[in-house]
Each structure stands twice: as C-alpha cells, then as structure tokens.
Write a structure and sequence with these properties.
Blueprint: E1 5-10, H1 14-23, E2 38-39, E3 79-86, E4 97-101, E5 104-110, E6 118-123, E7 129-134, E8 139-145, E9 148-154, E10 172-174, E11 178-179, E12 185-187, E13 193-198, E14 205-210, E15 214-217, E16 225-232, E17 238-246, E18 249-256, E19 262-263, E20 277-282, E21 285-291, E22 295-302, E23 305-313, E24 315-318, E25 330-345, E26 351-369, E27 378-395, E28 406-408, E29 413-419, E30 425-431, E31 434-441
C-alpha cells in the first residue's frame, strides 16, 4: 500500500487568500484544481536526487527577512496579553500548529485519523474564528513566506486531496511515509516551498523543493535520519537539522546546503526517545533547542564552531526514595519537566526561545500488609493524587538561563508558536480545557 504526504500551497497574497476563504472560491480566479492528485517522484523510495543540493533556478527562489521590533524576552519582561480557548476539537495524534498570516493567526488542528480529518482556524479582524474542515489530519505543518502560505499534512495511507472550501490549490502527493511534527516545512518570499521528508525506505531523509517543479536533495546522504527540520537563511539558502545514525549512535546533525553535514554534539547513544528538537535561522546563523527528558539545551554556530549550553534542568523524580515502614506515612515526590516549544527568528538579529516548565508533586501514602509472622509489615508507596504548576518562558538566548516564567492556569501539551511582526509571540497547545491560544508580549 502506498503512503503519501500532501503539500498544499497558496501562491497568492495573504489578503487574496483571506478573501477567497471567506467567499469559498479559488483565490487566483483560475480553474479550480481541487480534487486533482498530482503524483510526484515515481516510486515511494526513488525520487530523482542530487546528492547535496537542488538544481539551479536562478533568482526564482529567494529569502527575505523581517525586522522584528519590541520583542519581549530580552531587556523587557514578557506577559500574557491574551488567553482564550479555540472553537476546535482536541486531536489525539499530534499537536496544533500556528503561523501568522499577516497579523492574523492561522491554526491547523490535526484531529487524529484518516476518517476524521482536521480543522483549519483563521482569526478575523473582529477576533472571531472561522473554522473549516480538512480531508486529512494525522500530522501537519504550516509555513509562511512573504504573502505565500503552505500547509502539509499526512493521513497515514493515501494522501487524498485537501479541500477547505476555497483558497487552496490542488493537493500534491509526495513519496514520503512520515514527516516531522514540527519544522518540516519552510516557504521563502518567492513562494518556493521546502519539505523535510523521512522516507519509507530505511528512514532516509530527503529534502523536497517546489519551485516551478519538484526537485529533491539528500543532505545527510543515505544515513538513517529521524525528526528532520528545515529553515531558510536570510539569503534564501537552506539549512536542515535532524538526528542522524552514525557508528556511535544517534548524532544531532546540521547541514547548510550544499556543504557537508556537521555534528552539533557527540552521539547520545543508541536510544532516541524523549528528545524534542526545535530549530530556526537568524541571518545565516542556526539556533537549536532540544531536551533529553530531563534538561533543556541550546546550541548555535559561530566563526569558531558550535557552542552549547543548558537553559533549564528538570528532575526525573526526587523524594520518597526510602521504603515506608508503617501505615499512614505520607510522602511527596517532585517531578519537573522542561519542554521546548519553538525557536523563533526574524531572519535578521532577533531570536526568541520558547519553552514550558511543568512542576508536579505526586502525593504518596503507605500501603502496608503483614507478610509473615513478624511484627513488621511490608509497605509500599501508592499514589494519593497530584498537584502541578506550569509556566511558559520566552527569552533571547542570552537571557534564557535566567528568564522568569509566566504562570499558566494549565500545562500545555504538544504546543507550537509563531513570531509576529510586532514582536508578539503566539502560542497554541492542548490543555485540560481544549485548544488554548495565547499571545505573549511586553
């Protein structure tokens, strides 16, 4: 059975897209191509490849930077300016993703399976949300460059054509089994789209570019790669990251096409489990943030090579290590988790790291029973409930290690974030109440 990924491109301006979405018609006034599957790349494992980079298309594709001003998280402290629950269902398979289309947020919520599809939400100028359904919805990503908006999603089976009621061009199927949950899509100001794909044949990573036609590159060669992501430098050049298998195990790797890939840090061994990776580029400088289940790390590359530091540390569980000895004894075990949400850059000089911290206290009580003729019972700790506090952090890399968090009413599950032109940070994620949307600023 063939698996596929659908890439959906809006090649008009943001304003045109908004108008078309409201009218329920094709945004460019041409033929309605929805319902057409375009099969690209031949067999699932064998799209045409260049070993390191893409064919030259002259100035067809290009970068572009935004000059973000008044972003909090450096000299100015951050605060939550807006907090609401969106009119959307919670997806069980993946988290919601957000971009800023102009100054308005566009949110994709992957509901969960091939039959259910997903939801696309756009906020209007009056603060209300327009909600439309998508044909697929297991995994997905959104990206924006200039006036161009793109969405990718994965349905786990056939990649049937996307349709949201108007505004999007035809879905185009790509030969891929799986995509990264975050950072798998980038769009430049000329409308060229880049998709980081993990292929079905031994998880080899391939980078697809859509200019006037699709082409492919393989920046990590034939190595197995997990969770690849792509971002664009200010000059339009392409950078990718991912966890790559080397002789010593999984290695966090980076490449600036067409240059050879580099290791960001030594091997973490043969198990890749808790690591969540986030990535963006400022100018031509890569910025990476990831966790290992306990701590949160940041790395960047300068003239002298890679530098790395710890942003925050968690705990796997402290307290209650000793065994209880009598009924009625109580104990509190503390667990702290730190999770990266996003690295956000404007392409020039502004960089913001966004992450969450969840402090949980597990309340335990002794459960005892007599296990022999002696007077001493056999006791173990059993759960008696828990309490938790959550905080959201937005900071520059320089200020990250000493940043002060903003208290959340609920912890965020599988969140994502986007940076607006006015410097505000927009965050979506699941919590106990639904799909929560936050705006962070000065």
């Amino acid at each position: 059975m063939r698996t596929a990924l659908a890439l959906l491109l809006v090649l008009g301006t943001a304003a045109c897209h908004t108008d078309a979405l409201e009218r329920g018609e094709d945004h460019d006034g041409g033929a309605d191509l929805r319902g057409v599957d375009v099969d690209l790349g031949g067999a699932p494992g064998d799209p045409p490849l260049d070993p390191t980079s893409f064919p030259d298309v002259g100035d067809r594709c290009g970068g572009g930077t935004r000059a973000i001003v008044d972003a909090c998280g450096d000299a100015a402290a951050c605060r939550i300016q807006h907090d609401e629950v969106l009119p959307a269902a919670i997806g069980w398979n993946d988290g919601p993703v957000i971009i800023l289309d102009g100054d308005q947020p566009l949110v994709f919520v992957p509901i969960g399976d091939m039959e259910t599809g997903g939801q696309l939400l756009r906020r209007g100028g009056d603060g209300s949300w327009a909600v439309s359904s998508t044909a697929r919805g297991m995994l997905g990503a959104l990206a924006r460059g200039g006036g161009h908006v793109a969405r990718i999603d994965y349905d786990g089976a056939f990649g049937t054509t996307y349709e949201d009621g108007g505004g999007w061009t035809a879905g185009e199927r790509l030969p891929a089994q799986y995509i990264s949950r975050g950072g798998a899509l980038a769009v430049d100001d000329a409308g060229c789209a880049y998709v980081a794909l993990t292929m079905s044949d031994r998880d080899r990573m391939r980078l697809a570019r859509r200019a006037d036609a699709w082409s492919y590159a393989q920046p990590f060669g034939t190595d197995q790669v997990e969770r690849p992501q792509v971002a664009l430098a200010a000059d339009g050049s392409v950078e990718v990251v991912g966890w790559r298998v080397q002789d010593a195990g999984w290695v966090l790797s980076w490449a600036h096409l067409p240059d050879a890939a580099e290791a960001v840090q030594p091997s973490i061994g043969n198990v890749l489990s808790e690591q969540t990776l986030r990535f963006d580029v400022s100018g031509a400088t890569p910025h990476l943030m990831w966790n290992d289940g306990t701590s949160l790390y940041y790395a960047t590359r300068g003239a002298g090579g890679w530098t790395q530091g710890t942003i925050a540390s968690g705990t796997a569980g402290t307290g209650c290590e000793s065994t209880p000895t009598a009924p009625g004894q109580t104990c509190d075990a503390h667990v702290t988790q730190v999770e990266p949400i996003a690295v956000l850059a404007d392409g020039a000089s502004t960089v913001r790291l966004v992450w969450t911290r969840l402090d949980q206290v597990q309340h335990l009580t002794a459960s005892c029973q007599m296990s022999g003729p002696g007077p001493t019972p056999s006791c173990t700790w059993v759960g008696a409930g828990q309490t938790s506090t959550a905080a959201l952090y937005v900071a520059s890399p320089v200020e990250a290690a000493t940043a002060t968090g903003m208290t959340l009413s609920h912890g965020l599950d599988r969140p994502s974030a986007a940076l607006a032109d006015d410097g505000t940070v927009h965050v979506v994620g699941y919590d106990d109440t639904g799909v929560r949307y936050l705006v962070i600023g000065r």
